[in-house]
Amino acid sequence: MKHQGKIKQVGRYSVSLLARLGRYELAMLLCVAVLSGGVWGFVALADEVTEGDTQSIDESLLLALRNPADLSDPIGPGWVEEMGRDFTALGGVGVLVLITLGALGYLLLARRYRAALFTSMAVPGGILLSTVLKLGFDRPRPDLVPHEAMVYTASFPSGHSMMSAVTYLTLAALLTRVQPALRLKAYLLILAILLTLLVGMSRVYLGVHWPTDVLAGWTAGASWAAMCWIVMRWMQRRGQVETEESLPDTE
Question: Keyword set for this entry (predicted)?
């Protein structure tokens, strides 16, 4: 009986271990797919934009969001336009800095000091990449419709879209690596994706970006977040960054 009990215990442990390894490998494959697909998508899109092949569809989609009788009027009631400005603010530098500092505070309070250090380099690094790409392509802003928000930089890729993807997706990816509860991991990722989509769509709705600018920002930002997740997972395996099991929960 004792031997049977031990065999059952070993069996349960083996099944649990295999399931856990399988989940990690699936997550790794998904991140590699996002990284490679995002890079390929950005390069292909940038090539099409540079050659002017996307101009027709960009103009059609942008005009579809405006009142045909008055191009200065976005479709929908006034409160939808105001909500668009609220959503676009979620991708602004000030908001993203505050959210990043909040995440760093959480990691520090949770005693994930090395994870906090990694985060403090990952997010600013992605924002720097966004700035460099905008300077490199230097695409003019849309001139078909009046802008419903102030703009200061070039159009491709969308800075708000890329920075929100970099910030929200990177923070979600990193926080899930130190969060043991599966439901909280899923919640963080879903929330990050939703915020990123809302910011990007609001930029087109307000007329300050071509749709392809936003798509390029999403692909580049998602690629950066996936790369950060892969790097952090590798560092955790080497013991250089805390894992979800490495530290006890603290009150």
Answer: Membrane, Transmembrane, Transmembrane helix
